[in-house]
Amino acid sequence: MTSPTLTLVRGDITRQRVDAIVNAANSSLLGGGGVDGAIHRRGGPAILQECRALRASRYGKGLPTGQAVATTAGELDARWVIHTVGPVHSRTEDRSHLLASCYRESLRVADELGARTVAFPAISTGVYRWPMDDAARIAVETVRRTGTAVEEVRFVLFDDMAYRAFAARVG
């Protein structure tokens, strides 16, 4: 296992042609706003159906923060969606280990699936208010340090500010 190639894309994660798209999900796995809502809308009802089945079986209380689980990608241009729950940023408690875990666990699930290309959003930077520069640092460092068979990690960034923050870390 080696470190994957890191690619930056400014755009819409739901338009990526990759093996797996990572969803910045909420713990309910039942859809939400931001990236989560966009993935559920474009991917169609098959994703929600599998998420409901996960809730009914293994994740009755929801997916814990920092963990990851896969479903079909439905109508997306991918084979799978890997759902991970990022932490809400706190000024009084260091939760960076949970944010790093989102990336590590998503790569672990990708390896179990046999995914070679994975698209990540900037996890926890929307309504969970993680500062973009710090989120980029944690994401890039974690992916570089995690042994994986994934060949390409594509960070798909919604706006110029996010793109610049990740570009500063990727080098």
Describe the structure.
The protein is built from 5 helices and 6 strands. With 171 residues, the chain is an alpha/beta fold. The protein has one domain: Leucine Aminopeptidase, subunit E, domain 1 (3-Layer(aba) Sandwich), CATH 3.40.220.10. The chain has a 6-stranded mixed sheet, sandwiched between helices. α4 links the parallel β5 and β6. The radius of gyration is 14 Å and the shape is globular. The model has no long low-confidence stretch (mean pLDDT 96). This is O-acetyl-ADP-ribose deacetylase.
Main traits of this protein?
Leucine Aminopeptidase, subunit E, domain 1; six-stranded mixed β-sheet; 171 residues; 6 strands; alpha/beta
Précis, in short:
This is O-acetyl-ADP-ribose deacetylase. With 171 residues, this protein is α/β, with parallel strands linked by helices. It contains 5 helices and 6 strands, in the order ββααββαβαβα.
Helices, strands, pairings?
Layout: E1 5-10, E2 20-25, H1 34-43, H2 45-56, E3 68-72, E4 80-85, H3 96-113, E5 117-120, H4 132-145, E6 152-157, H5 160-170
Parallel strand pairs: 1-6, 2-4, 2-5, 5-6
Antiparallel strand pairs: 3-4
Pfam family, one: Macro
InterPro entries: Macro_dom, Macro_dom-like
Organism: Streptomyces thermogriseus
The largest sheet has its strands arranged as: 1-6-5-2-4-3
- Kindly state the percentage of residues in helix: 25-40%
Q: Could you tell me the strand content as a percent range?
A: 15-25%
CATH superfamily membership: Leucine Aminopeptidase, subunit E, domain 1
